[in-house]
Design a protein that fits this description.
Strand content: 5-15%
CATH topology of the largest domain: Nucleotidyltransferase, domain 5
Number of strands: 7
Largest sheet: 7 strands, mixed
Radius of gyration: 26 Å
CATH architecture of the largest domain: 2-Layer Sandwich
Structural class: alpha/beta
Oligomer: single chain
Shape: globular
CATH class of the largest domain: Alpha Beta
Low-confidence stretches: 6-12, 94-98
Helix content: 40-55%
Number of helices: 17
Distance between the termini: 47 Å
Number of domains: 3
Mean pLDDT: 89
Amino acid sequence: MALKEVYQLNLNHGFLPTILRKDHELVILADKIDWNAMSDALRSKFSLRGRKAKRLRLMVGLHFLKHIYNLSDERVCLMLEENLYFRYFCGVDCDMQDWLSKKVLNPCTMSRFRKRLGVDGMHLIENIIKAQLFEEKRISTKLQIVDTSAMEKNIAYPVDSHLLARGIGKVVGMVGKLKKKGLSVAVRSFKRLVRKEVLKINKLGRGRRDRITEGTKKLIEYAKKVAKEADIATRAQKKKVKATTALVIDGLKKQLKDGLGLLGRVINQAQKRLEGIHVKGKVLSLHEPDVTVIAKGKRRKRYEYGAKVSFSVERNGYILGHQEYHQNVADINTLDQALSDWEQTFGELPDELGADRAYFTSNPSEIVSKVRRAAIPTRGRKRHPDAAKAYFKRIQKRRNCIEPLIGHLKADHRLDRCRYSGKVGDTLNVGFGATAWNLKKWAREIKNEKQKVA
């Protein structure tokens, strides 16, 4: 797609600002955010050829609105057509007649934009917002507060029997697509038998444990037969096909090989479970194979399935860093990366560091030793030597503010469950959620300052 530039006057330069409240948070943010710098930074993501793309301010602004107000792609696109403040914030270019007759954006465009944006594009957007906050002296780099949380993925509860059934259906579907392209391939689907075994497993009542074991064994048998027949399909060839069709067939074969690999892992872990053997690195979802099990010790929910996220917050409550881990790492093992990212972003390490007792270690690493003061309580009953000092109490009091902050991120800014796909989707979800928190806080501070002056 090519980048689209528009230089004509629009509603935002006409009557629209006169009928909107100037103290509204979206009006304040629309005038404060450096949209030009954002467009220049993301210009490399687009080509000068091809069909014109949507404006960068529109796409980035919609993602900000989505995470500020906790909306879906469909809902935020619908609100763009109905809400004047949404239009002003995104800088929509259209006249009144076009506004009333034409749909502004298809929700599918947002998912395509996220794929184009990537992790590096998300970091560029975050850095521009951080630079503006730093220039206005709203953030301080002297104190860093760190904590971790689990961000769940949008997957069903992982059960081997259900994974086997879905894996069989997925592989059979891929072979069917190859058959439509003209390859002489065929795989028995076992659709009726698989459904019968799944219903038997899900049935409650006496003897359910035996039914689960028996049904899982049969599903393993069906999965092995499907995998054996589908493996032959990956080597099937068709003579005299178009170049474009050949590329499609190669892509489908690659997807089939990946699907067979996942199905093989599910078969292996199901067999080991029946034998009473624990398997590390289990497949918990076929469409999200990178999901891991995270045990946070919560009474309400012992295990969460997703990614572990480390947050870095400064003294005033702005989020200035985050890292995503797709394994259940200990909190202390995330501290060095959080400090390194802080140093890389601001050019220096913080003077003070605050964290909970999960980050305590008797042998701190080299980068942690460079911090002048670290207020981290010790584990066990023995108190920290500096626990009674004023600086330790002050930092720990400020550290407590990160707990409700993470709660707001989950409840209000879509970090309770990540609906974006893959590892890149985790970073985008956390990045937009953290930026939404910073923007909302920024607008609130500006609004309070104007009210005090008035």
